[in-house]
Write a structure and sequence with these properties.
Layout (H helix, E strand, L loop, with lengths): L4 E5 L4 H15 L4 E7 L9 H15 L3 E7 L8 H14 L3 E4 L7 H17 L7 E2 L2 E2 L7 E5 L9 E4 L4 H9 L20 H17 L5 E5 L14
Parallel strand pairs: 1-2, 1-4, 2-3, 4-7
Antiparallel strand pairs: 5-6, 7-9, 8-9
Helix pairs in contact: 1-5, 2-5, 3-4
The structure holds zinc ion.
Length: 238
């Protein structure tokens, strides 16, 4: 299946926190969007790999994703090396997306920055025809998307572009809350964590509000780009 947008996320819930409004918006416009999670988030203080699998599935249904895969890399210990790059290259070539969204290149959780680097390196290498990959015996063609953006997740980073997600904030919160073991669940006996307090979710909403305000919208999601961004028509900018 060819996708319009492919999202790479090192932990199931990263895509939801960083760019689910943008995913929802583009799916509503008829675009095909998928997420490839790198790990099952098995080192998360709360829940298990199995509960995260189920939560990712439920969130994916709220998002209306066309596909969601998990590469089962080792949470916390995966490397940006040839073995991991080849697995990511296979996903780029399998789905041939026009646009890829990845983790931020620098964030509080070190997995995020390393995954952002891994994704960016693999996306570049995916365009080189002399790197050969195959899935189920079928040799893949080289592919490089025309645009790669990094979503902004925990640490504040000045965005290069902001997407208006005002119509999708409620569903963004709903898909984040699908990760029941991770976020504000007052009845749990599991330990409190950085992300489990009500204030964390409030901060996610406040960040969206701040990004939105900067473009004259109610809510927004910010992205960074390693290359300069162009536009065909100035009237498409707001
Ligand atoms: Zn994460």
């Amino acid at each position: 299946m060819k996708l319009d947008i492919l999202v790479f996320a090192v932990h199931p819930d990263d895509a939801e926190l960083g760019c689910s409004g943008t995913i929802l918006k583009h799916i509503a416009e008829g675009k095909k969007v998928g997420i490839v999670d790198f790990t099952r988030g098995e080192l998360g203080t709360r829940g298990t790999a199995e509960t995260r699998d189920q939560e990712a599935k439920e969130s994916g249904e709220i998002l209306g994703l066309h596909v969601r895969e998990n590469l089962r890399f080792k949470d916390g210990f995966f490397k940006n090396d040839e073995t991991h790059q080849l697995e990511v290259i296979k996903m780029v070539r399998k789905y041939k997306p026009e646009i890829i969204l990845t983790n931020a290149l620098d964030d509080r959780h070190p997995d995020h920055g390393r995954a952002g680097d891994l994704a960016n390196d693999a996306i570049f290498l995916s365009g080189l025809i002399k790197i050969q990959t195959s899935i189920a015996g079928t040799v893949q063609e080289a592919w490089r998307p025309r645009l790669v953006l990094q979503y902004i997740q925990d640490r504040y980073i000045k965005p290069d572009i902001i997407v208006d997600i005002s119509d999708f904030i409620d569903r963004k919160i709903a898909c984040i809350k699908a990760f029941k073991t991770q976020f504000d669940s007052p009845d749990t006996k599991e330990p409190q964590t950085y992300i489990s307090s009500p204030e964390f979710l409030e901060a996610v909403i406040a960040r969206s509000r701040e990004f939105g305000k900067n473009i004259g919208a109610k809510y927004g999601e910010g992205f960074t780009s390693r290359k300069l961004l162009g536009v065909d028509n100035l009237f498409n900018l707001k």
